[in-house]
Amino acid sequence: MGRFTTHHSQFTLPRPVRRLIQLCLLLLTAGTTRAHWGNENDTEVRVYADRMQVVVRTSIPLAWTILGAQAPLVADERGRDLARPRLIAAASGLFHVTAGGKPITTTKTDCLFEVEDDVAFVLVFERPLEWPVVLNATFFPLLSNLDSGTIRVFDFSASPFNSDLKPLVEGVLHQGNPSFTFSLESPESDVAHGVEPEPVPAATAEPAWPRSFITVFIILAGCAVMALTWAWLRSRQRH
To answer: What 8-state DSSP symbol labels residue 135?
Structure first.
């Protein structure tokens, strides 16, 4: 895709243009109703008696951005089947995690395409033996300084099946502060380690129109410009 040939000559669309076309196709094939449209991301840290689970939910376009050149062209059923093992492999790199100042690594990773077209990365660790736990989101360099994500911590140690459990602590991640720290040592330790919920930076305030509408408008406008450019180049080739 991206190469057009005539009887007289040929030309190749620039790589950024080809990537924009790919993004347009992703939006068209991924569906029009979703929990996440752009670079929104939500992270849940679930601490159990025998493990710690980190679930990161993103949009399909953001998941494809994480894959980079390995991303399939479209996000239809076949594209998702191709992407899933690559996303599972990429999951362990979404967060750098330490416990008591020592790095801990995943014991298992998974990736699921959920009903509302969210992509859920699942990272499983052994239950931390030392505190505090520090999670550093490594994917924010792929995003703009206007993008942010939420993070919440749940302690399921005593009640692993309690669906009504409220988060112990929560906060906001962004380029300026992609790290989050928490501890289960004592009720006072959360404050001691500075994990109070952070306010969203002023730059991340939502515009008057929903971000999803603006994103779709920009992408469709870009597609229209590319279509007109392509038609004009084809016209020149014929003459």
So the answer is: E
Taking only the tens place, the pLDDT of each residue in 55-83 is 999 999 999 999 999 999 999 999 999 99
Handedness of CA 47, 51, 54, 60 (dihedral sign): negative
Question: Chain centroid to CA 192: how far?
Answer: 30
> Among all chains, which residue has been given the structure tokens 């076949």?
78
Cα dihedral 34, 199, 214, 27, rounded to 10, equals -30
Q: What is the rounded CA–CA span in Å between residue 25 and residue 121?
A: 23
Over residues 127-144, the pLDDT tens digits come to: 999 999 999 999 999 999
82 token code pair: 């191709």
C-alpha 57/C-alpha 91 separation (Å) is 11
In which element (H, E) is residue 67 found?
helix 60-67
The answer to whether the beta carbons of residues 64 and 75 sit under 8 Å apart is yes
How many alpha carbons fall within 13 Å on the CB side of residue 47?
Answer: 21
Across the beta sheet with 108-113, the strand order is 108-113, 119-126, 51-58, 41-47, 148-155, 169-174
Say how far apart CA 49 and CA 235 lie, in whole Å: 67
Non-local CB neighbours of 4 within 8 Å, separated by 6+ positions = 10, 11, 13, 230, 233, 234, 237
Q: Is the dihedral of CA 23, 24, 26, 31 positive or negative?
A: positive
